[in-house]
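tool=predict chain=A
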Amino acid sequence: MSDDSISADGMPATETVAERLMRFLFALRSRGVTDTRVLTAMEKIDRGIFVRGLFAERAYEDMPLPISCGQTISQPSIVGLMTQALNLQPRDTVLEIGTGSGYQAAILSQLARRIYTVDRHRRLVREAQDTFRELGLVNITAFTADGSYGLPDQAPFDRILVTAAAEDPPGPLLAQLKVGGIMVLPVGQSDAVQSLIKVTRLDSGYEYEELRPVRFVPLVEGLGVE
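tool=predict ok
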């Protein structure tokens, strides 16, 4: 009898860590994540650390998964494509709106100098802070705050990444972007019709580029109950 049995998550039960990582990176490349620095960061940061409970065994599949507070951890290929679109430089200061599990911020921390991340749910921020400490990621600062207003005390930012969808790019976030800076975010009037866009701030205004269709949780004003 063959020992190539299938585990509960549809993967070969005998798959090694190295094989799983190779398959994970192949999936990223096949979906358009080609930047070597981004792929290296995603190879280094283990997504499995950020997925807990029933869905932990599916952490290496290219799919969004539920986390606490009714939120999700984005599918890895979308994390990679959004990170790639930021065109991060080593000395950049980055603002992330929507900490969630902390996975995206951890990826950013490998590519930029300083990461500020904001979430409206205190529980998610606490859990993410614990994970950042566990991984020794000392260049991330996490806040509980209403992300739609950004972090004016720390502005301006070289890059801004928003992991929740608004109808339009929020004015306060556009104002906190440096000239020459880039913001990547999903926009759309419903959770069914959204586009990932790249906004570049110019001396004379803003340049918008539509990247691809996506689906994210909505950007909600105010603080969460947890």
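The chain has one domain: 17-214. The first helix runs from residue 17 to 30.
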